[in-house]
């Protein structure tokens, strides 16, 4: 049981890391960026492409892929969100826009065959691929009767480090104060001299970098990269996590991610693999019924 719970912490780390990106964007813009799962996938694809197709060492491909995911986040803000925001479009318009952006990203990766413009992204179309043997560490360690692989250890360390850095940035830095001001009231923040567009851009880029990091760690952990890993593996679970923890609540998102990972593992042990996909939906339904604001969230209020 202890080994299974430890595995739940590892998968919960990825859920929390991924869902933090949802939380950051929702906290500032009060929209759910549904292109987030595509950025998760692209982080894994960028890392795989650099390592497998261009011979880049994983330690170098890792930060480059995260930077690439952040760049995709900038495209989401500049192409899919900012034009709508400046026109005063309703939140549903941004939601649909990000869905469209995600579909375009998946289609690009699916069609990136040799000889095409995006051939450097992918080599095998929509087929699932793995990192080359020896490209990533595969050592295992034993401690107190528990077995931990090098990818799992990297997941835990990288996730915790990213969460701590984010906690510091939001709570202790000038950017964090500006972000909180925009989240409270974009109009008031603008009157106080805050560049709202710049803060939103930085927030979406940071959220996307977190999604890219989560995607790379997930791909390394399961040794599987495909155009659909964001949609099939984490999108709905990420939504369940932010509802479970409380919309826009960073601490709640972290707690919700780990909690969902542990609950999934316990359900897997108790009922088998067939129920794993339904756990996120069940958690989402129960929280919405019992406590709509989430475990650590507060009731939604209207922004000025």
Mind explaining what this structure looks like?
By secondary structure, the chain is mainly alpha-helical. It has one domain (2-290): ABC transporter involved in vitamin B12 uptake, BtuC (Orthogonal Bundle). It has eleven helices and two strands; from the N terminus they run ααααββααααααα. The protein has helices at residues 2-29, 36-53, 58-86, 91-110, 150-172, 174-184, 186-191, 196-222, 229-245, 250-271, 276-290, and strands at residues 140-143, 146-149. It has a two-stranded antiparallel sheet with strand order 1-2. α1 (2-29) packs parallel to α5 and α2 (36-53) packs across α9. It is globular, with a radius of gyration of 19 Å. The relative contact order is 0.20. The model has no long low-confidence stretch (mean pLDDT 85).
SSE layout and pairings?
Layout: H1 2-29, H2 36-53, H3 58-86, H4 91-110, E1 140-143, E2 146-149, H5 150-172, H6 174-184, H7 186-191, H8 196-222, H9 229-245, H10 250-271, H11 276-290
Antiparallel strand pairs: 1-2
- Radius of gyration in whole Å, from Cα? 19 Å
Strand content: under 5%
Terminal Cα span = 49 Å
* Number of self-contained structural domains: 1
Order of helices and strands: HHHHEEHHHHHHH
Task: Put the structure in a nutshell.
The protein is mainly alpha-helical and 304 residues long. It is built from 11 helices and 2 strands.
């Amino acid at each position: 049981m202890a080994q299974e719970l430890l595995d739940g912490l590892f998968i919960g780390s990825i859920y929390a890391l991924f869902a933090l990106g949802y939380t950051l964007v929702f906290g500032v813009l009060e929209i759910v960026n549904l292109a987030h799962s595509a950025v998760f996938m692209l982080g894994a694809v960028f890392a795989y492409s650099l390592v497998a197709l261009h011979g880049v060492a994983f330690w170098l491909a890792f930060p480059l892929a995260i930077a690439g995911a952040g760049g995709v986040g900038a495209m989401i803000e500049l192409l899919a969100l900012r034009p709508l925001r400046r026109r005063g479009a309703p939140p549903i318009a941004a939601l649909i826009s990000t869905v469209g952006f995600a579909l375009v990203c998946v289609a690009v990766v699916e069609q990136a065959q040799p000889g095409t413009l995006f051939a450097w992204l992918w080599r095998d179309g929509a087929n699932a691929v793995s990192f080359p043997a020896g490209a990533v560490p595969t050592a295992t360690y034993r401690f107190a009767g528990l077995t931990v692989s090098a990818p799992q250890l990297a997941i835990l360390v990288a996730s915790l480090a990213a969460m701590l850095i984010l906690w510091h940035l939001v709570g202790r830095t000038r950017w964090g104060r500006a972000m909180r001001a925009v989240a409270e009231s974009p109009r008031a923040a603008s009157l106080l001299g805050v560049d709202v567009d710049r803060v939103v851009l930085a927030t979406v880029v940071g959220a996307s970098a977190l999604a890219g990091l989560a995607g790379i760690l997930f791909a390394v952990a399961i040794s599987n990269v495909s155009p659909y890993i964001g949609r099939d593996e984490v999108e709905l679970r990420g939504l369940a996590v932010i509802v479970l923890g409380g919309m826009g609540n960073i601490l709640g998102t972290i707690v919700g991610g780990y909690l969902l990972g542990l609950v999934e593992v316990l359900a897997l042990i108790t009922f088998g693999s067939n129920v794993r996909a339904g756990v996120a939906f069940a958690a989402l339904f129960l929280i919405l019924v019992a406590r709509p604001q989430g475990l650590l969230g507060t009731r939604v209020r209207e922004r000025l």
